[in-house]
Amino acid sequence: MEWIRIPLGPMQTNAYLLYSSNHQDCLIVDPGEEAGKVRQFLEKKKVKPSAILLTHAHFDHIGAVDALRDHYQIPVYVHENEKKWLADPSKNGSSFFQGITPITAREPDQVFTNEGSMKIGEWTFELLFTPGHSPGSVSFYFKEAGIVLAGDALFQGSIGRTDLRGGDHNLLLKSIHTKLLTLPEETYVLSGHGAVTTIGDEMNSNPFLNGF
């Protein structure tokens, strides 16, 4: 598996494209804005996405969802706790910030309901329920590739904010410690914002995780 991180929009939210030379489909994770930039990369690699996966439904992660869904005719997945958030600016947070035009997308085509092994297209991964930043936050763990897409749960040297709708600081810390920090230390953490880190680095140096 190969992957690329593409920061999109004014908040530089990381979208990720997962692809492989073994087959011609890919997965799009958290396309926050700038659908044209995502399409340009896909066309360059000559791969067609099979689905859009959302780690959660905050506005800065969903801005390009409908444009890409409609262009490629592919389904959108989000956790069932946030299936109504895409279409509601008061839930997805875009009405929370002054100067931001309300952002909406149509409701998801599919919802995540249970943790465990999942297969979408040619891709198999482990779905981890990691709420706290939002009530439907999930992470996608690709064991063979040694990566976990953690959304806004865990960052390099930081953790997700919990002052938006449904945020819960203690629950977020529990999610990080019981679901993410139990992964192999060499696992790369592909976060929703900022640089790539590893589980081991965050265990050793993240100041928000000490003393839990």
How would you explain this protein's 3D organization?
The chain has 212 residues and is of the alpha/beta class. It has a single domain (2-209), classed as Ribonuclease Z/Hydroxyacylglutathione hydrolase-like (Metallo-beta-lactamase, Chain A, 4-Layer Sandwich). The chain has five helices and 14 strands. The strands form three sheets. Strands 1-2-3-4-5-6 form a six-stranded mixed β-sheet. The longest helix is centred in the C-terminal third of the chain and has 12 residues, at 169-180. The chain starts with a strand and ends in a 7-residue tail after the last helix. Residues 12-193 form the Metallo-beta-lactamase domain. Its cofactor is Zn(2+). Pfam families: Lactamase_B. GO terms for molecular function: hydrolase activity; metal ion binding. This is Metallo-beta-lactamase domain-containing protein.
